[in-house]
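Notebook entry, structure prediction.
Reason for the run: the old model in the group folder had no record of what sequence produced it. Starting over properly, with the input documented here first.
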Amino acid sequence: MEKIVDAGGLVLSEFPLKMKPQMWSFPQRNRLIAGLGQCLFLPEAGEESGSLITVEAGVKMKRAVYGTPASMFCVNSQ
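New structure, fully documented this time:
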């Protein structure tokens, strides 16, 4: 995080500094990601993908969601 800030970047989190990533914290992170833009673009996502958590949060926030057409037989496009 320090390298990001030192390079002029921004670190945005609901969690305390120095908190290590936990599996349960990813959906909350994804909610922040969904809220940062006016729309979401999902190139592909498997059925249990964390990307779908981001899309679900975006839909709740009334964000436009765009996807890429692909074969319905592709594991990452179901």
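Summary: The CA atoms of residues 23 and 29 lie 10 Å apart.
The old model has been moved to the deprecated folder.
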